[in-house]
Amino acid sequence: MQRVRDMHFLGTILLVAMAIAGKPGMMAAQSPPPDGKIEQGSANIQLVSHVPLGRAFSVGDIEIEQELTRPYVYVSRWELGGVDILDISTPEKANIIYSWRIENAELHRGSGGTDGKYFKLNDRYYYVQALQFLQGGPDADLGAVVFDVTGLPDPAEIEEVGRIRAPDTPGGFHNLFAYKHSDGRVLLFATAAGPHANIYDMEKFLSGDPESGLIGRIPVPEFPCANQGMSSVYHDFYVAYHHETGQDRFYGASQPVGTYIFDISRPEDPGLLTSVACVPGVTRDHTFAVSPDGRYAIAESHLRYSPIRVYDLEPGLSGKTRIVDKPIGAWTADWKKHAHNLEMRWPYVFVANYMEGMQVFNMMDPTDPYTIGQFDTYDMPDSFAYGGGQSFFTEVANGAMGLDVRNADGLIVVSDFTTGFWAFRMDGFEGWNGEDWGMPNVSTVQDWENGPTGIRRTVFE
User: Fold this and answer.
1) In the chain, what are the domain boundaries?
2) Which InterPro entries match (predicted)?
């Protein structure tokens, strides 16, 4: 039985009494309760809307714009090589208003549309769709397509403004992170099929720079205990401003294993600060997020039976240890499964937990995180997994894949590999600002106008 404790928000204690005896499983296989209703989620999670998006394994990651005046959600289309844009101006009536697919999609090979991020620059809004295509078909060197989406909700106003190609590392970009740097630049970080992450200055890109705005690369360091004789690549990353030191920091999770933290205050010259590596039982690193103060990290390994681990970064960042190699806490919804992507809104962590659907846990005490809510977005058999269930990676890979949170009002959006788009609200969570928790207001959400809060902005020359 999952433990559910007091949920504390802005000084108000909300006692949520839940008795969850494991995963409900397939809805059709449940014995209905006396009132005939089947519970898909905990009492504190409210379903707002659900939009099916087609065949299984055609849905990728998800991105929500943060301004309430721009109620748009972007869902990457896995294998289809594209994106769907939903209008959630009335969240209960979410609907698709625009779809884009790569030309000659049937000739392409690979994962297709994997991830997407939006940004704002010079009073215009842009969306970047990451793409991954294999050699043997078109566009193996294509990493991303950039659209001007300022004119939404009118789909006729959407315009493709350029494409980012990486011919030296064919295979496309798996993940992206759009970041407002403390020097004022809008930067795009992209995975590449090589031992580094690419950094693009999006103003240079939009001005037609012949290098697509590429200004630098962050290498994957070589650690004998981590590399295991294999060539490492970054999988996912998080980028944030650290208020105590005044540093812009990059946190890159690499595969086969190792997460590396760089000072990117000058992104053209990144400096390694510390690493999370050589952790017993961890054979790959997938997704990483950090508390607003930069001290505590959560890491997902994307392997069956592997929990989300919690790390204290202080010993590594202070120089007490060369690397951080021991977690201080762990959380899982079901030890037989594993998570995929996550978003931290301290002290809450929202998790796209594959076959366990959307999960929320509290890590106010990093050594003892606990579940506070859940909703099962996946109602297919556990044996129905991506790739046919042939490895620890694929055998439970289906269900909730991507997730995002709108800070202004607390709306939670989820993309499910098979069942499509979902939107939720959680009781007591009506928005998030780190300062309400005694923390810097730092998350994946960017202030595109001002950059990191509480600092003197320096214009890059």
Assistant:
1) 56-219
2) Haem_d1_sf
